[in-house]
Amino acid sequence: MKRTIGWIIPTLLATAALQVQADEREGGGLNVAFTDCTEFVGVEPVPESKARALVPSQYQLVVDDAGAKLVVRIAHCEGVAVNNRPAQAGTVAHLGIMLYSPDGTGTDPNTAINNYTLTYASNVPVLVNGLRKQGVPAQWDGNLTYEVTPTSATNEFYAAVSPDGQDAVTWFLHGAVTEPVIASPFLANWWSYSKKGEVKMATNIEQIYFDFGSTVSFFTARNSFVGDLLGSNGVANFPLSFRGKFASGQMAVTRKR
Fold first, then answer.
1. Domain range spanning residue 207?
2. pTM of the model as a whole
């Protein structure tokens, strides 16, 4: 099986790269349609000095008495369609640091969030390659796992992120989540900066349902940069977290130099 995977993954990525090159000839940028999605987001205070070292100086961190904010997000969608290509089921997982809006969009903390992207992983090849072309450090994770198992009172939740790559950060989530019922619009801006310029990944969701009663733990290696940021192997229970569910969302990926 490992031999099979060894040649399948490069083939998928190479095919996706050709698709992205065609997209760029057609005008560049990415538009991604997400359908039938659920997600989990956890927020954990971390030392401001350590967070500051991971984020370019032009971005202003959200900081309070508890420190800066590490944002952990994973979402699974039954449909992920990049630049109007056929949709496929897929999962995305990010780690980031919460920001004040760099461009004046998404300033209401009840209906929007801005984060600087530390890591980005997905099992959708054309999405990974499209983001790489823009300068986002996206990583392929063919074993990306997202499980929600109904139990008697809540739902057991498990996620495992282990991207390919020598410097990839492996992390896990496990706990209990309940069904989202609180409706709201939401705008999620994830930012990235590289020698190619500044990338904004703006996902607009006209209606998402939230639940704020989840109890979920986070685990990672202490010797990873995330473990160093936390000063431990994880988070026993996020002080702020939510589970989301939405029928559709649109992500526009733009880059400026």
1. 2-256
2. 0.89
